[in-house]
Amino acid sequence: MIIEALLAFTFAAALLVFAVPNKYAAKLAFGLSLVPIAGSLYMWWAFESGGNALTGGDIAFETAVPWLEIAGYELQWFVGLDGISLPLVVLTTFLSALAIVSAWTPIQSRQSQFYGLMLLMEANLIGVFVALDFFLWFIFWEAVLVPMYFLIGVWGGPRRKYAAIKFFVYTNIASLVMFIGFMMLVFSLPVDSFGLPEITQSLAAGELGDFYWLGAETLALVAFAAMFIGFAVKVPVFPVHTWLPDAHVEAPTPVSVMLAGVLLKMGTYALLRFNFTMLPEQASFFAIPIGIIAVISVIYGAMLALAQTDLKRIVAYSSVSSMGYVILGLIAFTEFGVGGATFQMVAHGLISGLMFMAVGVIYNSTHTRIVSDMSGLADRMPVAVWILVAGAFAYMGLPLMAGFAGEFFIFAGSFGSTVLPYAPVFTALAMFGIVIVAGYLLLAMQKTLFGPFRLETDYEIGRAPLHDIAPLVALLAAIILLGVAPSLFFDMILDATVPILELGGVDQ
Amino acid sequence: MSALALQLEQTNWLFASWTLAPVLLLAATALAVLAIDSIDPDSRSNSILAGTSAVGTLAALGVTVWYLVAGTGQTDAGGAISLFSGAIVVDGMSLFFTAIFASVALLVIVASYDYLADDENPAAFYSLLLFATTAMALMASSNSLATVFISLEMASLPSYALVAYLKDNRGSVEGGLKYFLIGAVSSAVLAFGISLVYGATGTLLLSEIAEEITNVDDLSGILGVGILMIAGGFAFKIASVPFHFWAPEAYEGAPAPVSAFLSSASKAAGFVVAFRVFAEAFVPAMEIAIDWALLFGILAVATMTLGNFAAATQENVKRMLAYSSIGHAGYGLIGLAAISAGATDANAAVMGAAMAHLLVYGFMNTGAFLFIAMVEYWGVGRTFDDYAGLSQKAPMACVAMAVFMFSLAGLPVFGGFFSKYFLFAGAINAGFWWLAAVGAITSALSLYYYSRVVKALWIEEPNGNLDALDTKPTGLYAAVIVAAVMTILLLPGFGPVIETAEAAAAAVFA
Predict the structure, then answer these.
(1) Do residues B153 and B236 touch, judged by C-beta distance below 8 A?
(2) Mapping DSSP to helix (H, G, I), strand (E, B) and coil, where does residue B120 land?
(3) Which residues from B are below 8 Å from A7, CB to CB?
């Protein structure tokens, strides 16, 4: 029942904040967002790891209630957690609260609507990670898009209308492709519900039948491809990443934080849950193309970041690069590859959140994000700048920070992959991406933060207010904590990911 | 023995009359409104009239829902209840649709309280609305071609007057005239079709027509033409291609609450007679006289395509909704198009899905038109440009409108998703994948023009002076918010709706 309580509270909080006057909304939303953090931390504390929810392991905090019936298939209210979804729920509640605080300075109009939508999005994101019935999951999945559309469209920058529509159209078409692929799969299985565990286990038992004139083997490949395309847009990877920079640049800081920190993880989470858990053989069939997509995303994303002059665009493109690592870890299909990819989802959520927030704090003072417009900011706003530098090092994978743990696990796992042919070559190429990341981040730091002070815009730079700095410190602390003790999450992640490999027939 | 049977017959008759209570309540409310106006014609008390109408409609709705829950006339509780020698029948389908009509009428009455605040003669409006609702409830119960025709005319005549209600407004009068002319022609076509079917089969009762059809022999040509003409008469009522020409003008010209009523309730009324007549009487004719399912399939594809593409090109929001309403008639027609002789289960599933879609549509479309009524009340304009930035002054109403738009588009967040999904899945299961494909493509397209409204309301900056929005019309707000809440609740609560609808459809096919 704790999951239901968490969801109900967050939805109610969203409604409440929507209804209060603007001047109270910010503080109230932050206060209310602390409760989901407490709830998710309690679940983390009470959680007993017991395998993967889909492959037949224990499902923590499980509820399954029949909902309605479609043509012989039962839909359920079916929620629960395992070692993959729990860290992401904790990430969602933590990052949402911090993003709400980071909105206090930049959001100066229609606050109650803004914070209401943030909480609504948080509730739906939690729903995405806890849902274990396909329809329930799909409803939450789509329900995340609606608040995001408004958050970019109403509070965004000058080109917000274009960015919001592009985001909405891209992700909705992707959802449609994925939905059709998954439906073809389910209609060819002898299952009587849309419960994800039942579907997974039926597929693992080799019960897939023909779909009209499509044979079972072709059907599985078609469904894998359709779902991969649908989720790849959300991740995003090359070549369907083009909505991301527009959305990020136009979105206000807190929305960018949620977009990069949690929404992108929906894509990789779904890839892991659907494509790699349900159809591992088809994943190995497509291993080389997926490996190539992953490496291109890493290198190309980093190169694009290198070419940008807008700090926010740099961070946005580097997300494409980081998500490439996650895909590489997944397709490697080894203990550390898949586990590391899952860990990297959390780590990247924290680090990219930190980077976007730090850039936001600087923008609040300077009113510019163009690298050539400023230099020597370290003199004027030391705390914010040093946190930005720390975040950049986390991004580059400095040991004892979360980014290092994630990337190290991924590379260790992908190097010895038996599923991905030429795994060492792919790994070596992807590792080269780190060099470029270090290159563009250091270059941008050096130009903007150090050297003599200069600012093209005529704004008086003061120290950032405490409520701007506090979430940065909290994020940095979390990043270091996970870097020093990755086992806080990594043990439960491994517990949940190793059964996927066993189901896929990979010997460890 | 015979005395006992007679007694049983009498108690049955008494009991059976009670099952018409929703229709009688609606009729009594309409008469009460007239009576109040006759007793005190000078007071023109809008609140008393609206209150009486709302209470009466609410009572009718309450009784209908009670009957539905209690199982009156449904398969589990002894099957359909016949009255007046079988000319009227009370079963799951009639109650389901009566619930739709009463809900829509209730929302429209509550909203009209503000819309008619300065009206000279509100009693005329409410009584016309209630008479039309009564006739629609009767349409849902009609089990003979005679009662079908009479109740359809009874519903149409007040509707013509309602469209032309704004006597000084050119658009309203023009819409009313156009509606009346096309309505008169299609009534004639319908009457001619009925007479041909009667000529071929020798009966007007739907159940007897089904039996007689197998004996028509060389009159099958006449029967086929008769069925075709009856289909034409119904196509007018549901605003399907090629009898849709009246709809954009009538919906745009009419007062917005009337547009809401016509595009939701009147359309559903057209569907219920079409469902009952074709499912109960004409299924055997598919092999003998005319493959009417194919005919409806072609109409469905043409209506979905034309409605959605025409809606995408509109600049006037009300006209856009009028075309979207035509598009939704196309989705409803899938319920008649995906029918094949002998496949009772699949037929019931797809027709039940169409019924459920009409219910969800009753709330989301009524709500959308009532939002337009609210904008007309404020008087800020009609085009997308005029709608820009309304959310800055009226956030709650604009949230509701966003709910309606996304639900109409079938976004998987509101009731409109499940009803469309069941409809398309039912069509695929019945082997009509091409209907589902056209439906899915056109509803993906529809997201474009529906989201234009949301974009105008929420993302654009206001163009003009929005001071008029400071007045908050209570009735309109209440109706819009209730419709939005229902649209949201129909997502988690879709189970009972689809179960009731499928059982009701199965009973008609059996």
Answers:
(1) no
(2) coil
(3) none
Could you tell me the residue ranges of all domains in chain A?
Answer: 2-503
For residue B313, give the 3-state DSSP assignment. coil
User: Packing angle between helix B494-509 and helix B92-115, nearest 10 degrees?
Assistant: 130
- pLDDT higher than threshold 60 for residue B315: yes
d(CA B415, CA B401): 14
In a domain, B12, yes or no: no
Q: In the structure encoding, which two tokens stand for residue A282, read together?
A: 């088809």
Suggest the residue from B391, B392, B458, B459 to mutate for an interface test with chain A (most A CBs closer than 10 A).
B459
- Which residues of A fall within a CB distance of 8 Å from B451? 165, 168
Contact A71 B444 (CB under 8 A): no
**Cβ distance of A153 and B459 shorter than 8 Å:** yes
Distance CA B340, CA A212 (A): 20
Sort out which chain A residues have CB atoms less than 8 A from B495's CB and list them: 67-69
Distance of CA B73 to the CA centre of its chain: 21
Residue of B269, B426, B231 whose CA lies nearest to B340 = B426
| Per-residue exposure over B91-112, b if at least 16 CB sit within 10 Å of its own CB, e if not | bbbbbbbbbbbbbbbbbbbbbb
Judged against a pLDDT cut of 90, whether residue A416 lies above it is answered with no
Phi, psi (deg, nearest 5) at residue A57:
-75, 180
Q: Would you say residue B10 lies in a domain?
A: no
Can you read off the two tokens belonging to residue B179?
């509606």
Q: What is the ipTM of this complex?
A: 0.88
Distance, in Å, from the CA atom of B365 to the CA atom of A413, rounded to the nearest integer, reads 54
Instruction: Check residue A143 and give its pLDDT.
Output: 92
Asked if residue B61 is part of any domain, the answer here is yes
Q: Is A67 close to B492, i.e. CB distance below 8 A?
A: yes
State the CB neighbour count (10 A cutoff) for residue A1.
8
CB contact under 8 A, A139 and B459: no
pTM above 0.80, yes or no: yes
- Number of independent structural domains in chain B: 1
Residues B315, B321, B323, B324: is their CA dihedral positive or negative? positive
Contact between residue B284 and residue B128 where contact means Cβ atoms under 8 Å apart: no
B496 belongs to a structural domain: yes
Per-residue pLDDT reduced to its tens digit, A338-375: 999 999 999 999 999 999 999 898 888 888 888 888 88
Separation between Cα atoms, residue A61 and residue A3, nearest integer Å: 7
Range of the domain at B410: 18-509
